[in-house]
Amino acid sequence: MSETNRVPKRGRRRVQIMSCAIGVTLLAACAGGGGGGGAGDQDPASGGAGPATTARTVDPGQPVSDQQIPHLNVGLAGKVTLVDPAENMESGLFVNQLGLEPLLRIDPEGQLQPWLATEWEQVSDTVYEYTLREGVTFWDGTELTAEDVKYSWDHVRAPESRRANYFTTVDTIEVVDPYTVRVTLTQPDASWQYVPAMWYSVIFQKTFAEEAGDAFGQPGTLLVATGPWKFDSVNPATGMELSAHEDYWGGKPPVDRISIKAFADDNSMALALRSGAIDITPTVAGPTGFDAAAGGNSVTTVPTCANTLLSIPTQSEPWNDVHVRRAVAYAINQEDIIAAAQGAAAGPAEHVISERLLQTLGSGEEIDAALEGVATYSFDVEAAKAEMAQSSVPDGFSYDLTVVAASAAIAEVIAAQLSEIGIDITVAVLQDTAYYAALGEDEKPFTFFATGPCSPDPSWAALFVDTDEAGQPVGLNFAEYAPPEVTQLLADGLLEQDPQERLGIYAEVLRHLGEDVPYVPLYAEGNTYGSTDYDLVEFSSFWSNLPWVLNLVPK
Question: What is the pLDDT of residues 229-245, one digit of tens each?
Answer without folding.
Answer: 999 999 988 999 999 99
